[in-house]
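Usage example:
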Amino acid sequence: MSEAKFLSGYDPDAYDRPALAVDLVLLGLHDGRPSVLLLQRAEHPHAGRWALPGGFVALDETLDAAAERVLRDKAGLAGIQCEQLYTFGALDRDPRMRIVSVAYLALLPERAFGEALDGMPKLSRAVIDVPWTGEAGGPVAVLPADGRMRGEPLALAFDHAEILALAILRLRGKLDYSDVGFALLPEHFTLRQLQDVHEAILGTPLNKPAFRRRMLDRGWLAPTGSREAGTSFRPAELYRFQKPS
Amino acid sequence: MSEAKFLSGYDPDAYDRPALAVDLVLLGLHDGRPSVLLLQRAEHPHAGRWALPGGFVALDETLDAAAERVLRDKAGLAGIQCEQLYTFGALDRDPRMRIVSVAYLALLPERAFGEALDGMPKLSRAVIDVPWTGEAGGPVAVLPADGRMRGEPLALAFDHAEILALAILRLRGKLDYSDVGFALLPEHFTLRQLQDVHEAILGTPLNKPAFRRRMLDRGWLAPTGSREAGTSFRPAELYRFQKPS
DNA sequence: CTAACTAATGCGCATAACGGATATATGTCA
DNA sequence: TGACATATATCCGTTATGCGCATTAGTTAG
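Running the assembly step on the lines above writes:
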């Protein structure tokens, strides 16, 4: 039997299968802390709780394409780098049915974050409280960003707290040796802004001269020649991210 | 409407969905090079080509459980640490139908590798030829390990070459700062054996005193007091891996 | 019994990375 | 013009790393 013949007689629906979805962790910064875009579920299941934007994977779209579609439809964003994070497959993670979800991580500079908030009124910004240091790992809490950010952490739907915790862990791990830090900055930025990003992600202050040296020695920073404006003190040089050839 | 009521009326089969599978990269070492367990496909599609052991994910099993089941049924192994690697979702990766596959990576010490080969006659060992250095990434080739290992790389089925390449990349990346290297060694081992493992994975020779110092300073090695046997020269101290408290 | 051999182990030095404090430069604003 | 705040540069002590070399402890040959 030829391979073509075999395929024509193959029944793709012979077995039951889990549903497949993507969930997006859209991270930004807020007041020197990591924050995330969430939407409050209006419908069952988990009505009223807060969830990551997500959606089912269609038969004729890749995982990456599904992530991009959710990014566009639920956050109104395009052209944002989306990276696969992990695939979650616990049996009871969704009460409706068996759903396996591929989590994606995207980093939004302040402009994109605000754009999403403005364009999609259902989205809210939540601040992530990371109670552990370094790459210890563990649970994280999310707090409302608007208003006073007091007490009451938000209740997350499904296993989204777990997804969020892994996103933070992954981000911290990649910060040193990859270029993820720049994804949270505008095109032109100062070294202090870059350091602020690193400190927000790592949750710990960094030594300034050492940080400057490391970043400049890495060769990824191209000075633009211009300086920041609007300061009441000496303005800092503006740099541009330029991947080494 | 209560959540319970909502759930009772929910139709899980409302939409078509991709099939979900797991594929296992079972890595070991052979003659100082990374090697992998493969099986030659007897049936369509891709009959005759070489594939990673895999299987579909059942409705009532988690992804990790599916990986363990495949490890048991197709490699005859149990109690091996399996770690999720990446999820592959290209549209045409399987000609039968749309299949999304969650790849897992497991490291087999020589004993487990041989055990799998003996217990499952269909499995073969293939040596992985990594033509790039460091973490540059890129395609890899697989060569038959038995016999002379001459020319003719094996033809891999589906996108399994891509999966394999990512496994190598991930392994190289984690080698420095994690304990993955020990997973390829027996319970008791010498520093030279540990260095051999690192050199095989990285594909580059390492400086001996510097390697010794780094490993010992890390505090993960507990000397056993005994020494290796059967050498015609000074036998080395045997160590045991002991995760720091 | 002794010497040759081999690889493990230990030592020392030059160099590079790094944390951290301090000094200098360069803008704004009163 | 000078006070001020922050960016930028310099310096130093500590620690990690690369690397050659001496020493040690086994086996094997004579």
